[in-house]
Write a structure and sequence with these properties.
single chain, alpha/beta, Rossmann fold, four-stranded parallel β-sheet, 8 helices
Length: 247
């Protein structure tokens, strides 16, 4: 059960379904379903109806309020109404080294030469009021900068934190790299992705990559999170403890 944030923009749910179609191709016979926290259907409770057991995987790139509070709360409600339901919550998609590979895939598709020392990257996440989540993005940017060969990798946030993507682009252009490109650390097209593209191009970015979408790296990460959750639930069952809502 892959749980996405949900959006009024139909492109978001279409991206989720495209990603899950790739997961189904990679693992024939594994039942794969989508659920949404807001705006789209089914809700997590609706999607769990009729199931006896499920591994619930957050289709979220960073651990924050939705994975720490919203999903466990929804799972708690589902288990309260159906005490025999066994649910196991896996980890969020990120952080994971393969997500940097996916980001570079999208940049290459936008015509960017990967690892160009004269090119600065602005890594844009949705942003969060949770400082821990934003710190994860900053750490990801530092990791990518050390390993990628770029002039620099600067974190930016589309909401709730600073700098904004356009502020980051303007500061970098003032500082001297020949080119500034933007890598959205976003799952799907929608309000944030459209705003990031528009504002950073106006600020002077020479290229803006597409969101991660159904990149093959995300398929691999999702199946890895599934396997980890299954192993955790199996170990718990062997010790005779109650199956955890979170690993």
């Amino acid at each position: 059960m892959a749980v996405a944030h949900g959006s009024r923009d139909p492109r978001a749910s279409a991206t989720v379904e495209a990603l899950l179609d790739e997961v189904r191709l990679a693992r024939p016979g594994l039942p794969v379903h989508a659920a949404y926290l807001d705006h789209s259907r089914p809700s997590l409770g609706e999607a769990l109806a009729g199931l006896d057991e499920a591994v619930v995987l957050p289709l979220l790139l960073t651990e924050a309020y939705h994975s720490r509070v919203d999903i466990p709360s929804a799972l708690g409600q589902a288990r309260a109404s159906r005490p025999r339901l066994r649910v196991h919550q896996g980890a969020t998609l990120g952080p994971h080294p393969l997500l940097i590979t996916a980001l570079e895939r999208r940049l290459a598709e936008a015509g960017v030469r990967i690892g160009d020392p004269d090119t600065a990257v602005v890594l844009v996440s949705a942003g969060s009021s949770d400082r821990r989540a934003n710190a994860v993005i900053a750490h990801l940017a530092r990791t990518w900068a050390r390993s990628g060969g770029w002039h620099s990798v600067t974190p930016a946030y589309a909401s709730a934190a600073s700098p904004t993507p356009e502020e980051a682009v303007l500061r970098l252009l003032h500082g001297g790299p020949n080119r500034v490109v933007v890598a959205p650390y976003l799952l799907a097209s929608g309000h944030f992705a459209d705003k990031v593209r528009r504002n950073t191009l106006e600020a002077g970015a020479c290229a803006v990559a597409d969101p991660l979408g159904p990149a093959p790296e995300l398929v691999t990460v999702l199946l890895e999170r599934y396997a980890q959750a299954v192993r955790t639930s199996g170990a718990t069952a062997r010790t005779g403890e109650t199956a955890p809502v979170r690993p």
